[in-house]
Design goal:
Layout: H1 2-17, E1 22-38, E2 44-48, E3 52-66, E4 69-74, E5 76-88, E6 96-114, E7 122-141, E8 148-151, E9 154-167, E10 173-183, E11 188-191, E12 199-212
Antiparallel strand pairs: 1-3, 1-12, 2-5, 3-4, 3-5, 4-6, 5-6, 6-7, 7-9, 8-11, 9-10, 10-12
């Protein structure tokens, strides 16, 4: 279902960009996904369990505000990993590890600043903003997951990025860079009955690659 949504949005953005100062593109981003946990239980120690390789993919659009200033947005399919390690405070038993796979449709809202040309047809860019993310799927990996019953529908993150744009022609630009997404919202919807509330926020670091035309 998500790939059909992305195709429809790409067609809509293509029509819009033909009639305004827009640059339309496609972005692909391998990501390292992790999470932060806040909880103070008298019976369990809760901690993050590792990092996973995931990805983000979808159409993007840059709207020119003035020279070298752009409002950047899009619609990306984003996959995230949540890992939890729980151990008993009294030290009895082995650690229990839980893993969940989450999928979102993400709308980035950011300001992109470009430098003047640092060499022929090459510019650095810096990006600052936030994201709005809407859950479309969640899966529990394994049979030992019991702490989280359901995840929240909405997520959001702080977006910081930088990279390089390389113009191939009048209307075609390649870009590559890195971005850091630091979760702002608690993604736990419903949890098991514990003596503490589990607060969890998703983070990921991405390698951003794409083309604009």
């Amino acid at each position: 279902m998500s790939k059909y949504i992305l195709i429809v949005c790409l067609c809509v953005l293509s029509i819009i960009s033909a009639n305004a100062q827009f640059k339309l593109g496609i972005q692909f981003s391998p990501t390292l996904s992790t999470n932060r946990i806040e909880a103070s239980s008298d019976s369990l120690n809760l901690d993050t369990d590792g990092t996973g390789l995931r990805m983000a993919l979808g159409p993007i659009i840059d709207y020119q505000i003035k020279d070298n200033y752009y409002f950047s947005s899009g619609l990306l399919f984003v996959s995230k990993r949540v890992g939890i390690e729980s151990t008993r405070v009294d030290g009895d038993g082995l650690p229990n590890r839980e893993t969940y796979s989450l999928q979102y449709l993400q709308v980035p809202l950011s300001l992109k600043l470009l430098t003047n040309e640092v060499s022929l047809d090459k510019k650095f860019y810096f990006q600052l903003g936030t994201t709005l993310e809407f859950a479309i799927d969640e899966k529990s990996k394994g049979d030992t997951n019991f702490l989280i019953d359901d995840f929240a529908f909405f997520d959001s993150s702080l977006l910081l990025g930088f990279g390089l744009e390389f113009r191939l022609g009048v209307n075609t630009t390649l870009f590559g860079g890195f971005s850091y997404h630091r979760g702002l919202a608690n993604v736990v919807g419903e949890q098991a009955a514990l003596d503490t509330e589990i607060k969890m926020k998703n983070d990921y670091l991405s390698l951003d690659m794409g083309i604009k035309f």
